[in-house]
């Protein structure tokens, strides 16, 4: 588990193609690897990866074909910068929100502009994720825990303060940049629980919680 508070930015050193999968080598910048062991998890731009090799200032992780296809990692090249966070330890402050490192989908930066000393970003999520994004709710973008300011259909806005832009790769975003999105895990479990017995039937995960579903199950005001 992670918090969404980025500890360092790193850089992709190389990608080794291995039978369709990739071994990703990442330079870790200022990230302290003194307590890291093989088998530990490091979130890399929001994707939970397992350390298989490491040394002074670098680690390597195997990235499956599934992960390459469902995240932005498949489009990385040597020199690309990434956000890094080691898995949280019991007893640490939870400065962001509960983040699993399991990316739900890839979004896109629509626009950006000044907002006082900060920058306002507008992003577009895949349509299937829109129902999990709420005004003043939490969302994880490339591993960064953020608060949603505005929701408009599948698009939403974020306010990025200068320190966040400086300490993460947000400062490199431009319209069209693709980003990894992880929605609040509580919203996903809540939806599943509300389905009740219907959750045991094939296809229920695609129906979600609709107004019709709520009316059939006796929820007032529907």
Q: What does it look like?
A:
With 222 residues, this protein is mostly beta strands. The protein has three domains: 8-86, Elongation Factor Tu (Ef-tu), domain 3; 105-183, Elongation Factor Tu (Ef-tu), domain 3, CATH 2.40.30.20; 186-216, no CATH class. It is built from five helices and 13 strands. Strands 10-9-13-7-8-12-11 form a seven-stranded antiparallel sheet. The radius of gyration is 19 Å and the shape is globular. It starts with 7 loop residues before the first strand and ends in a 6-residue tail after the last helix.
Key words describing this protein structure:
single chain; about 220 residues; mainly beta; Elongation Factor Tu (Ef-tu), domain 3; seven-stranded antiparallel beta sheet; six-stranded antiparallel β-barrel; 5 helices
Rg: 19 Å
The oligomeric status of these chains comes to single chain
> Structural class per helix/strand content?
mainly beta
How many β strands by DSSP? 13
Shape: globular
CATH topology name of the largest domain: Elongation Factor Tu (Ef-tu), domain 3
Kindly, what is the distance between the CA atoms of the first and last residues, rounded to a whole number of angstroms?
37 Å
Order of helices and strands: EEEEEHEEEEEEEHEHHH
Question: Layout of helices and strands, plus pairs?
Answer:
Elements: E1 8-18, E2 21-27, E3 41-44, E4 47-55, E5 58-63, H1 65-70, E6 81-86, E7 105-115, E8 118-124, E9 138-141, E10 144-147, E11 150-152, E12 155-160, H2 162-167, E13 178-183, H3 185-194, H4 204-207, H5 211-216
Antiparallel strand pairs: 1-2, 1-6, 2-5, 3-4, 3-6, 4-5, 7-8, 7-13, 8-12, 9-10, 9-13, 11-12
